[in-house]
Amino acid sequence: MLSFNLGPFALSLQHLSLLAAVGLGMAVAWGIERRGPAKRPGESVIFWLFIIALIVARAGFVIRYWPQYHNDPLQAIDLRDGGFLAWPGVVTMVLGTLLIGWRRASLRRPVGWGVSAGLVLWTLVSVTTQHLDQNRRLPDLHLQNASGLTVPLADPRGRPMVVNLWATWCPPCRREMPVLRQAMQDYPQVAFVLVNQGESVADVSTFLGTVGIDSTQVLFDQQTALAQQVGSAALPTTLFYSADGHLVGTHLGELSTASLAHALEMFEQ
After folding, report:
1. How many angstroms separate the Cα of 131 from the Cα of each of 86, 127, 241, 253?
2. How far apart are CA 230 and CA 137, in angstroms?
3. What are the tens digits of pLDDT across the range 66-110?
């Protein structure tokens, strides 16, 4: 299961693990403070440390990929691309916890133990999820191409693959199409396959012409079999497979030039 719907929102397992880690940290701090003399709620401190860490993680990502942002700096505040660097955020949480513990002895235990519990949970879930993903292979599916022929999803030349699940009625899918089109030109060593979910060739052909994407790079999955097999509950979803067909990364939501470049770095190693 890559994602699930919570009302109108779609959450990936990464989002869920992060929220669970913050929730655990706040719960641990609250439990310790119930038995101690702390005057300022440690759980609120942990919450604001998390917000600051997110801001730093985003700033680190923007700085790292500034060439992709400098033509349109306002994209730096558009968080829909999911562009964050984990390590600056983690460092911020740790340094913030040490600073608070040094300045406020009453918060040392609740904040220290709360942040530690949250980081341990997030690390365990991240490592476990990564291990499970590496055991997932590209589904053995045959889908319809624009000519009406049934063809295999797998790339016959054994290249790394980017598989994008999308539909024309999905606004984020439409917005990221220029990003994918440019990546197809910039990364010829990677196979890009756009798998339309639930629509016919006739419904999609006009749209493809407006965004300049060759229909030969699009497959049609009218029964949404691929989404069901990979456990995707939302569009767009982008899957990254190694040359031997193992899942090495996922991205839920809209891609930007920067977030796609970040994901594709794994194929340059």
Report:
1. 18, 6, 14, 22
2. 9
3. 999 988 888 888 888 889 999 999 999 999 999 999 998 889 999
Q: Is the peptide bond before 188 cis (omega within 30 degrees of 0)?
A: no
Strand 191-197 to strand 161-166: parallel, antiparallel, or no bridges (unpaired)? parallel
Q: What angle do CA 122, 161, 193 make, to 5 degrees?
A: 115
Structure tokens, 39: 């005057």
| Strand 191-197 with 247-252, pairing | unpaired
**pLDDT 10s digits, 167-214:** 999 999 999 999 999 999 999 999 999 999 999 888 888 888 888 888
The single residue listed with the structure tokens 């476990």 is: 128
CB atoms under 10 Å from CB of 74, counted, come to 7
CB atoms within 10 A of CB 109: 18
Instruction: Return the C-alpha torsion angle 161, 165, 166, 167, nearest 10.
Output: 130
Domains, in order of start, for the chain: 9-134 (no CATH), 142-268 (3.40.30.10)
Residues 269 and 88 sit within 8 Å (Cβ to Cβ): no
H-helix segments, the chain = 13-33, 42-64, 66-69, 86-103, 108-134, 171-186, 201-211, 225-230, 257-264
Q: Are the C-beta atoms of 180 and 213 separated by less than 8 Å?
A: yes
